[in-house]
User: Fold these one by one.
Assistant:
Number 1:
Amino acid sequence: MTKVSRKQIMEIYNSMLNSDGITTEGDVVLDMQDAVDTLIFRWNKCLELNPGIAKEKTFLTRISQIAKEGIHYLQDFMEARK
């Protein structure tokens, strides 16, 4: 997995705003990779900061629904592009 710094993402965004409208595949891939990295970071941080809540059955049920929503979105995304 490629790690992308926030600075690199901001440089891409800024170049997109000030460009001639051409966005490269690499620009989009970097942006999507950052979205995944951010999701993982935030979920890990939430769990790290709230270990008691993370063990609750109701929490796990609710988080399972959120995870399923994300998984379904990604599956639909990939299926639509086959």
Number 2:
Amino acid sequence: MQLYTGNKNYSSWSLRAWLMLDKNNINFDDIGLKLFTDHFYDTLEGLSPTKKVPLLIDGDVAVWESLAICEYINETYLSGKAWPEHTVQRATARAMANEMHAGFFALRNELPMNIRATRRVSLSQQALKDIKRIEQIWANQFKQYNGWLFGDWSIVDAMYAPVVLRFKTYGIMLNQEATAYMDRVLNCDSLNRWITMALAETDIVMEDEAGEEIV
């Protein structure tokens, strides 16, 4: 099994799929590609119809989108355990995961993932609204489960992990419960393996360099 990923410092969608595999102790080859280079597109030519990462190749199966990769791994290798067992909880978790997947555009545009940086940014009202909604999700779930968003680690935690890193980079302050959830994520061994790799990188992707560096 191969997972094609982008720069660890910047590629938030790659992180989601990578966490799904690493967190569940599934063996795979991580094939890292430098974003927006000729080698990146040449490598993905003929493998992915979108020429984007993440891309999972499992034998004859190719899955080229992060949430779809999580679903495929869950169904193929985890017997469904990466979603909550209870029907209502599972539906809520899927709604939250898709809310992240299909929304929060202002937040994602104004706070690109940049693990190596410590930055200050001026945020739009829509980005502040996005942050408030995510704070609400994390706080409400932490109050209920005092840990991961639905007790056990699940796909929805993978979907929000890059946002935790964004908030750390840009110094976003949250309420007590949401901060406690952030701390839980930042102490995850799998996430810290990714962070270590990101910190070792030296490539700069200007499209994802935002804000003013805090010295």
Number 3:
Amino acid sequence: MMESNLSARLEAHGIRPTAIRQLVLGTFGPDDRAYSLSELEAKLGTVDKSTLFRTLTLLWEKGLLHSIEDSQGLTRYALCADDCHCHDQHNGLVDLHPHFECERCKKVWCLKADPLPAVALPEGFHQHSASYVVKGLCPKCGSLTPSKLPTAL
């Protein structure tokens, strides 16, 4: 995303477009990847963990990012689309689309084209979020032959 687009997107969500906020938001690309705090910290190198965490929290609270917990228990953050309603204050639901987690490289992607179906809850129950993770191999890992696999796997 270009700097002017980043500023406009932040301002549209009531966020002052500081350099660090633009830098963090610009890290999320059009590939629908969800990143952990440590992945973002590695990508941004010069940003300390507490500043990064505060920035992610702000972007999440303002509806620019959504979060999901992966199979390792790590919170991952992904960019919300302009027409996203995952933070709709009226229904309180967050993250209502499935995600794909590669079992080999542990990367996570949003599958926004397939929203999760509504679940009929018994009376008195109140849903706040839903999580559906599809596990398998991403295109890159699925094409690796056994001789090309990392030794840590």
Number 4:
Amino acid sequence: MNGKIVKAIVLAAGQGRRMESKVPKQYLQLGGHEVLYYSLRAFEESQVDEIILVTGEDEIPWCREHIVRKYGFSKVKQIIPGGEERYDSVYAGLLAAAPCDYVLIHDGARPFVTGAIIERVLSGAAEYGSCTAGMPVKDTIKVVDEAGMAEDTPDRKSLWAIQTPQGFSYPVIFEAHERFREGSYRVPVTDDTMLAEMFLRKRTKLMEGSYKNIKVTTPEDMELAEVFLGEERA
């Protein structure tokens, strides 16, 4: 990146209630390794300079010993506690990432991120300041009301399913989070490009991710992840 400092924030503080497991989804075994292992490996092998792992406070010693040291992830320089909400965890990661030029934010429960995806998103962040991985939706989408009645059918050609990583110029995403936290209201924040769009009116560039770049959230996702992993190893 021509002397620019790039850091990655990998989020692994979720409880994974929809997984119906006592073990948080990011630590479930997938092909003999933890789900989180695959995300960290992808960033370890990428051009990022440093990885900041955000996890539960009680899980920090375990992650340090059984993930970072076990697999020799030398780019994981910090393991920090997350917050109550996802945006709190991201903000903690942004504070820990300073100073840097670009930052990538990734869900640790997306084990099939690749070096190519990381490179595309970082390239988009460098050019546009705000970028995210995503893919065009395959299904027809309906907008529904509170009673579950269809109100609109958007043109599928204009719809993308958003993934991570999401990449930003560090000043852009940090200011967006700062402005969000200064307000007295809270809106559902499902990704970080929302904040850049809402508070800075910063348009986001979409780069191709992969239909395999799923977020492991439910037992069905784990079954699909096993299939994808088996295809990679075949």
